[in-house]
Specification:
Blueprint: H1 3-10, H2 18-25, H3 29-41, E1 47-49, E2 53-55, H4 65-74, E3 81-85, H5 91-96, E4 106-110, E5 132-140, H6 150-164, E6 170-173, E7 177-180, E8 183-195, E9 199-208, H7 227-231, H8 238-259, H9 265-271, E10 278-281, E11 287-293, E12 299-303, E13 306-310, E14 317-319
Length: 324
């Protein structure tokens, strides 16, 4: 049977008996039991109470592609492709495949990733239908110079969207991690295909914690937070967040095409959490004082009186806690 139909029934967070679900879906109780077993095998936690039935505690806020397309159309934004997948290895990998065209903008969202990735090959934890796992692909003509600062620009797009929708104390940790009060809220992974002579296919992946529980986040190896913790349950419709984030990404990328990074430096400065702080470069453990970024998106670090420009691909940077 179609597991999505069963998930739709259970998404309200209420108890439903096997008999009731069988009647609603037009299948036998045996088929329901088998389907419930498949859901549990896929990592969906079911609460079972004898005499009451089955439920998903807290329900599910499933993504809706029609709602997302309608939101974007109301703002005169139209995608070449909109993919909504129940499960995928990673949304970035899906859009990087050769059979997915990249003429305009393509958007891929998934309820779960089986091999989600962060920067430097780190695993991105992806519980089913609790966070946002999304990637957008687009083309950029020109040489390597058009890629300078792109990661920074994408971070600005996400930070602006979150801040405008009520998330407090949004900060950007170079080049594009989203942090709030010392805890990670979202990360961005940029991948490329192409060459300078013919232009680039860019795929930008976003993972953002929306309503992940403490139990579901136990595997995360760094302090983290979520939109639910920061703004409460009333503002948690994931389709709306996916729509607003996509809108901000496309508007900011279009702005970048015209203005370059120079036109977005002021936006970066609003959210820069490393400005004026001592930071530690992962290569060699060198300490220095951060002075923002330059016009190419490189991190400026004063090391023993000498200013160095650090490329995103060379090192990772984290605040030196002993300096706080």
């Amino acid at each position: 049977m179609d597991l999505m139909r069963l998930l739709d029934v259970l998404s309200d967070g209420e108890y439903h008996s096997g008999v009731e679900m069988g009647r609603l879906l037009g299948v036998s109780r045996t088929a329901i039991w088998k389907a419930l077993g498949k859901l549990e095998a896929e990592g969906i936690v079911l609460d079972v109470v004898k005499g009451k039935g089955y439920r998903i505690d807290g329900g599910l806020d499933l993504l809706n592609s029609e709602d997302i397309a309608a939101y974007l159309a109301s703002r005169s934004i139209f995608l070449d492709n909109l993919y909504l997948l129940q499960e995928v290895d990673s949304t970035n990998s899906f859009l990087m495949r050769d059979d997915v065209e990249a003429k305009g903008y393509s958007l891929c969202l998934a309820e779960r990733q089986t091999a989600g990735r962060g920067r430097r090959g780190r695993e991105w934890h992806s519980p089913y239908a609790k966070n946002l796992y999304m990637s957008i692909s687009f083309s950029l003509p020109g040489g390597a110079e058009v890629l300078e600062g792109l990661s920074v620009v994408l971070g600005v797009a996400i930070a602006n969207c979150l801040s405008s929708r009520g998330v407090p104390n949004v900060g950007l940790k170079w080049p594009n991690d989203i942090w709030v009060d010392g805890k990670k809220l979202a990360g961005i992974l940029v991948e490329l295909k192409g060459e300078a002579e013919f232009g680039w296919k860019v795929v930008a992946g976003l993972g953002i914690n929306v309503r992940m529980s403490e139990h579901e986040g136990m595997q995360v190896d760094q302090p983290w937070t979520s939109i639910e913790r920061l703004v409460g349950d009333a503002s948690l419709e994931r389709s709306l967040w996916a729509s607003a984030l996509t809108e901000s990404l496309i508007e900011t990328i279009d702005r970048y095409r015209i203005e370059g990074l120079q036109g977005l430096l002021a936006d970066w400065s609003k959210f820069d959490i490393l400005q004026g702080r001592q930071v530690e470069l992962s290569v060699g453990g060198v300490l220095g004082l951060c002075h923002g970024i330059d016009s190419r998106g490189r991190l400026l670090v004063d090391v023993n009186g000498k200013m160095s420009a650090v490329n995103a691909g060379e090192v990772s940077v984290r605040p030196n806690e002993s300096s706080d």
